[in-house]
Amino acid sequence: ARRLCSPTDFALSNYAYMYVSTSCTTANRPNGGTSEYWARSAGTDASIACYVSNTGGIGTDGVNHTHYGVRPALHLAL
Length: 78
Prior knowledge:
By secondary structure, the protein is mostly beta strands.
C-alpha cells in the first residue's frame, strides 16, 4: 500500500514504535516493519487528529499519543 511507512533508525531511537509483520512490508524493511504516523488532517476537535495505521488504514486518535511518527508531505512542482 502506498501509505505504509517504515521508521528510520533515527525515529526508532526517538521512541517511534515499529510493528513487525511479514504481511506489511516496505522496500526499506522487506521482512516487515511499519509505523503509524500523523496525517495533516485535523480530527473532530482540538485534541483529535488523523493518523495512518501500521497497515495503511486511516483513523483518528488523541494528540497525546507519542508513539506516532511524523512523515513530511511534499508536493514539488518541477
